[in-house]
From TrEMBL:
It holds the Pfam family dCache_3. This is Diguanylate cyclase (GGDEF) domain-containing protein. The chain crosses the membrane at residues 273-294. Coiled coil: none annotated. It comes from Paenacidovorax caeni. GO terms for cellular component: membrane. Gene3D superfamilies: 3.30.70.270, 6.10.340.10, EAL domain. GO terms for molecular function: cyclic-guanylate-specific phosphodiesterase activity.
C-alpha cells in the first residue's frame, strides 16, 4: 500500500511538474518572441527613420549646392566682373574673386576660361591638393552644370559648383567650392535627433571623420570598424548606422546616419516587467489547479498502464480493460481498443506500402534496391552479369499540366503495363522509383542484352497511348549500367544507371550505357575541371575554323569556330571528352567566353580586317540562360573594337526549348545588339513552327545526319528539301553541315541551299591554315 501511494504521488508530481515545465517553456518562448519582436520592430522603425534621415540629409546637401550655385551665379552676373574678364584685367578679376569668396564664405573661388583652364583663383589656406582636384572636378561639372561635385582636399570634403559666365555668349566659368562643415550635421542632430558623420577615406586608405556629431569614444569605434554600416556599441548604447556613399573625387566620402536602439526600446521595458509579474501569478494558479486535476486522473489511468505497455510492444491481439465504463475513462479505454485494432491493420498495410507502389502495383525504390543487393550477393559466388535500366518519361510534367494529374496517373499505369510486357524472365523486376521514373533489373544480362531490352522499350513506345478522346505520344530517356563492369555494388550501380539516363535525355539518344565521361564525380573526370581552368589560364586551348562556302556565288566569307585542347601530357584531347563535361558542370560558359574572345581577337587582326569574314560561335543551354551573357559579349566587342554583325551565334533547338521564355528574351537582346542568330542541328529537337516564327533568328543549320543521308535515302533528301523551302519562306538563310562528297554539295546547290560546310570543303583548320586556305580560294 505504501508503494502504491508513492507511485500515485510520483505520477501526480510528474504530471504537475511536466505541466509547469511546459507552461514555463511557453512563457519563456513568449518572452523571447516579445523581446525579439520589440527589437525587430525597433530596428524596423529605426530603418524607416534612417530612410527619412537619408533623404533629408541629401536634401540638405542639395540645398547647400543650390546656395552655392546662386552665389556663383551672382558673381557670374556681376557686370563689373564680366567687364574685367572681357578686358583681361587680371588684378580686378583676382580682387573680385577674393572679395566675393570672402563675403559668402567660399573656400575656393576660381575663374576658368572657355576651355576650362584656370585663369584666376582665390583660396582659403594653402590647399596644396587644389590643382589635382581641379583636374578631376571640372570635367565632371562640365558634363552636369546644374549639379555639384564633392572633392576631398587635405582630408576635408568640399562641395564644388560651376556656372557659366555669359556676355551674352559663354566667356568663362565661375567655380566655387565650400567646405562641408559641422553646421549641417549639427542642424540634422537638432532637428531629427540623429547622429551624422562624414567619413573620408584617403587614396592611401587612411580614414578620418572631419564632420561628426558623435562623442569622441563613438568616433574612435566608428573609425576602428572601418565605417561599415551596421551596429555600433557605444557608451550611449547600441547605434544603428546607415552608410551612404557620396560621389566624390580625391578620396571616398561616406555619409553615416546613426540612431540609438535603446531610445526606441526603453518604453517597452516596463511592459515586459508587468508581463513577468502576471506570468508568475499565472504559474502559481496553474500549479494548484493542475495538481488537483492530476490527482483525480492518476488513479484510474494506472489501470490502463499495463494495457498500453502491451500495445507498445506490438501485442495487438489482447483487448484492453475498462471498456465497460460509461465515463470519460471508459471512452478512453474504448478508444484505445479501437486504436489497437486499427494499428494492427495499419501495420500490415504499412509493410505492404513500404515495398510496393500503390498507383502501379510495382515494387518501389526500396524494394528494387533490395532486389539488386540480393542479386549481386547471389552472383558473387558464381559471377553472372546483371544490368539495371533506368528510364524517365519525356515531357511528363507537360502532360500533368495540360491534361491533369488523373490522366497522368493513368498514363503511368499504362507505362508500367508496357514495361512489364517487355520483361520475359520471371527473375527480372520492373519497379517505379518515383514520379515518372522507372527501373528494370535484368539478371544474367550483359550490356548487349540490356541494349536490346532498351530498344524493345523504345519500339513499344512508338505506339501512342489512347485514353478516351486523348492520344499521347510516349518517349523516354533510357540509361543502363552493368555489374560488375560499371559498378561494384548496388548503390553505385543504381546511381550510374541514372547518370546514363540523364545523359541520354540530354543527348536525345534512345539508350545509353554508363560512361565515366557522363559522371562529373568519376575518377576519370574528377580533376578535369581543374585542368580545364588551367588550360584556359595557360593558353592550352586552340581556336580552329571550319570554312562555310556559299553555293550560289554570294559575297562574303564564313566559318564556324571550334575549340581544341592541346594538353601537355595527354596531347590533343578530343572535344567530346571535355565539352559534355563542361556543359554538365557549367564551365562551358567560360569556354564560350574564351571562344568569343579569341574570335574577336582574330577579327581585329590586321590580316582579317580586309576580309568580309563572319564567324559562327556555338552557345549552350547554360550560356543562353545566363542573364549576363549579352553584357559580357558587348564588353568583348568594345574591348577589341569589332562589330556584332561579324558574329553568328548558333543555338540548338533543345537549348531554346529548355526554358523558352528566358531563351526568347535573351535571343531578342542579342539580336538587338546586331548578332546574327542561327538554329543549329535543326530537325533534331522539339520546337514548333509557331514558336520558331517568333524567334529573331536569321539562319537555319540542317543537321548533318539528314545531309549525309541524302545519298542513300530519299526520306532524308525530302527532309532537307522541305527544311530549305520552309526557311526561305520564313525569310531565313540555310546552311547544310556534313557535306562529305561533291555529289551532296551539287545536290544542295540544286535545292537552293545557301551555304555548305563539311569535310569535302575543308576540315577544321588552325587560324593560320584557315587564312592560307582562304588565300588559295581567291
Amino acid at each position: 500500500m505504501k508503494r502504491l501511494r508513492l507511485a500515485r504521488r510520483s505520477l501526480i508530481l510528474r504530471l504537475v511538474g511536466l505541466s509547469l515545465l511546459l507552461l514555463l517553456i511557453v512563457q519563456a518562448a513568449g518572452f523571447a518572441v516579445v523581446r525579439a519582436s520589440i527589437d525587430r520592430n525597433a530596428r524596423a522603425q529605426i530603418a524607416r527613420a534612417l530612410d527619412l534621415d537619408e533623404n533629408i540629409w541629401r536634401r540638405l546637401l542639395d540645398q547647400n549646392a543650390e546656395q552655392l550655385r546662386q552665389g556663383s551665379a551672382l558673381l557670374a552676373a556681376d557686370y563689373g566682373f564680366r567687364s574685367a574678364v572681357n578686358s583681361g584685367d587680371e588684378e580686378t578679376i583676382q580682387s573680385v574673386l577674393e572679395n566675393h569668396g570672402s563675403r559668402i564664405g567660399a573656400a575656393v573661388t576660381a575663374l576658368l576660361g572657355t576651355d576650362l583652364t584656370l585663369r584666376a583663383v582665390s583660396l582659403t589656406g594653402s590647399m596644396d591638393q587644389f590643382p589635382a582636384t581641379l583636374q578631376q572636378v571640372v570635367p565632371r561639372l562640365a558634363q552636369q552644370p546644374q549639379g555639384s561635385q564633392i572633392a576631398v582636399m587635405d582630408g576635408v570634403p568640399y562641395q564644388f559648383v560651376m556656372v557659366p559666365m555669359r556676355a551674352p555668349v559663354v566667356i568663362g566659368w565661375v567655380l566655387m567650392g565650400f567646405r562641408i562643415d559641422q553646421s549641417r550635421a549639427d542642424e540634422m542632430r537638432q532637428l531629427l535627433s540623429v547622429h551624422v558623420a562624414l567619413m573620408v577615406k584617403a587614396p592611401g586608405g587612411a580614414l578620418s571623420l572631419p564632420v561628426s556629431t558623435l562623442p569622441a569614444d563613438a568616433q574612435a569605434l566608428l573609425l576602428a570598424s572601418g565605417g561599415a554600416a551596421g551596429e555600433l556599441q557605444t557608451a550611449e548604447g547600441t547605434l544603428l548606422a546607415r552608410s551612404s556613399p557620396l560621389d566624390s573625387v580625391g578620396g571616398e566620402v561616406h555619409s553615416l546616419l546613426l540612431r540609438s536602439v535603446d531610445e526606441v526600446v526603453a518604453p517597452y521595458r516596463q511592459l515586459q516587467v508587468l508581463l513577468a509579474i502576471i506570468t508568475v501569478a499565472g504559474v502559481l494558479l496553474f500549479a494548484v489547479g493542475t495538481g488537483l486535476v492530476a490527482q483525480r486522473l492518476a488513479t484510474p489511468l494506472r489501470s490502463l498502464l499495463a494495457a498500453t505497455q502491451r500495445l507498445s510492444r506490438g501485442e495487438y491481439d489482447v483487448p484492453l480493460e475498462h471498456t465497460d465504463r460509461t465515463d470519460e475513462i471508459g471512452n478512453l479505454a474504448r478508444s484505445f481498443d479501437h486504436m489497437r485494432v486499427d494499428i494492427g491493420a495499419q501495420q500490415t498495410e504499412i509493410r505492404r506500402l513500404a515495398y510496393w507502389d500503390r498507383l502501379t502495383g510495382l515494387p518501389n525504390r526500396e524494394r528494387f534496391r533490395d532486389a539488386v543487393v540480393q542479386a549481386i550477393a547471389g552472383s558473387a559466388s558464381t559471377p553472372q552479369p546483371l544490368a539495371v535500366l533506368t528510364l524517365d518519361l519525356d515531357r511528363f510534367k507537360h502532360v500533368n499540366d495540360v491534361l491533369g494529374y488523373a490522366f497522368g496517373d493513368r498514363l503511368l499505369q499504362a507505362v508500367a503495363e508496357r514495361l512489364s510486357q517487355q520483361v520475359l524472365s520471371p527473375d527480372d523486376m520492373v519497379a517505379r522509383l518515383g514520379g515518372n521514373e522507372f527501373a528494370i533489373l535484368l539478371q544474367r544480362a550483359d550490356a548487349a542484352d540490356a541494349h536490346d531490352i532498351a530498344q524493345r522499350i523504345n519500339q513499344s513506345f512508338e505506339e501512342p497511348l489512347a485514353f478516351e478522346d486523348q492520344t499521347v505520344d510516349l518517349s523516354a530517356g533510357i540509361g543502363f549500367a552493368c555489374w560488375p563492369g560499371d559498378a561494384g555494388d548496388a548503390d553505385t550501380l543504381l546511381s550510374r544507371s541514372e547518370i546514363a539516363m540523364y545523359a541520354a535525355k540530354r543527348k536525345l539518344s534512345g539508350a545509353l550505357q554508363y560512361d565515366a565521361a557522363f559522371d562529373s564525380s568519376s575518377a576519370q573526370t574528377l580533376s578535369l575541371l581543374t585542368e580545364l581552368r588551367h588550360a584556359v589560364e595557360h593558353h592550352e586551348l586552340r581556336l580552329y575554323l571550319q570554312p562555310k562556302v556559299p553555293l550560289h556565288g554570294q559575297p562574303g566569307l564564313a566559318a564556324e569556330a571550334l575549340v581544341r585542347w592541346q594538353h601537355p601530357q595527354r596531347g590533343l584531347v578530343p572535344p567530346m571528352q571535355f565539352i559534355p563535361f563542361a556543359e554538365q558542370t557549367g564551365f562551358v560558359r567560360q569556354l564560350t567566353l574564351w571562344m568569343f574572345e579569341e574570335v574577336a581577337r582574330l577579327l581585329a587582326d590586321p590580316r582579317t580586317q580586309g576580309l568580309p569574314l563572319r564567324v559562327s560561335v556555338n552557345l549552350s543551354t547554360r550560356d543562353l540562360l545566363d542573364p549576363e551573357l549579352s553584357h559580357r559579349l558587348a564588353e568583348i566587342l568594345v574591348r577589341h573594337g569589332v562589330a556584332a554583325s561579324a558574329f553568328c551565334l548558333e543555338i540548338t533547338e533543345s537549348a531554346i526549348m529548355d526554358d523558352p521564355q528566358r531563351a526568347e528574351a535573351m535571343l531578342n537582346r542579342l539580336s538587338e545588339q546586331g548578332f546574327k542568330l542561327s538554329i543549329d542541328d535543326f530537325g533534331t529537337g522539339y520546337s514548333s513552327l509557331a514558336y520558331l516564327k517568333r524567334l529573331p533568328v536569321d539562319e537555319l543549320k540542317i543537321d548533318k545526319s539528314f545531309v549525309m543521308g541524302m545519298e542513300t535515302g530519299e526520306d532524308d533528301a525530302m527532309i532537307v528539301r522541305s527544311t530549305i523551302d520552309l526557311a526561305h519562306n520564313l525569310g531565313l538563310t540555310v546552311v547544310a553541315e556534313g557535306v562529305e562528297t561533291a555529289a551532296i554539295q551539287d545536290r544542295l546547290r540544286a535545292l537552293a541551299c545557301d551555304e555548305a560546310q563539311g569535310y569535302h570543303i575543308a576540315r577544321p583548320l588552325p587560324v593560320d591554315d584557315f587564312l592560307a586556305w582562304q588565300a588559295r580560294q581567291v
